[in-house]
Amino acid sequence: MAKHGYNRTFLILGAFLTGGAVPIQLVTLSFGYAQYLKQTAMGPKMILVAHQFAEWYIPLVYLPSLVILTGILYLSRTRYPDVFRRIIVGLGVGALATVALDLFRAMGVINGWLPGDTPAMFGKMATGSRSFTVFYPVGYFVHYLNGANFGLFFTFVWGRQRSFQHSVAWAIFWLLLIEIGMMTGPPMAPMVGPFGIRFAWPQFFLLTLVAHIAFGTVLGILVHFWLKEEDRGGLLKFIQGQRA
Questions:
Q1: Confidence (pLDDT) at 1
Q2: Which residue of 75, 174, 200, 241 is surrounded by the most CB atoms within 10 Å?
């Protein structure tokens, strides 16, 4: 029994790290490297410098993490169905919630309220290529995988709440934390100032705020209805195998 518990805990923490923290940090670490360490905060050069970090982080950290997460999915499918369920639901609802976010993101790109097209920026950072057919599909993959990773992070840390309203409220709270991080950290803050005060103020901030609220709303709704009653409780109770 003890070994069973340790194996389950190891898989939970492994999935939490490889499906949440490590992939999400690709963007912030790459652009943080360019903006804070190399002092390149604007323009195409910034993306190329960010690629210097990404070109080793992706093969040595990012892709191995996804392989490990896939292995954890395989191992947990029959042995620990609650672990498997939180991973699958988290990744799925995170990706679907990104669709809601993209409705507002596209509006920002069309109206010039964003400093760039997110998939294009992510794709150039990841590939170092200037070919649209290369960087744009990769950028969309990174963009949607990022959203999926945020969904996994939410299902692990918060799980299913006791009511539909609580699930939505906690999801929006989680996305507001992300909004604050985006407004004050790389890559946005060094480019456009905190909360976009040096760019399209206040449209930039309001657009991203509404987009993240939309993401959180969809995330909370789907998590509440797709997770089961036994999935109630946060990360500690999840690890302990206890119900809320």
A1: 45
A2: 174
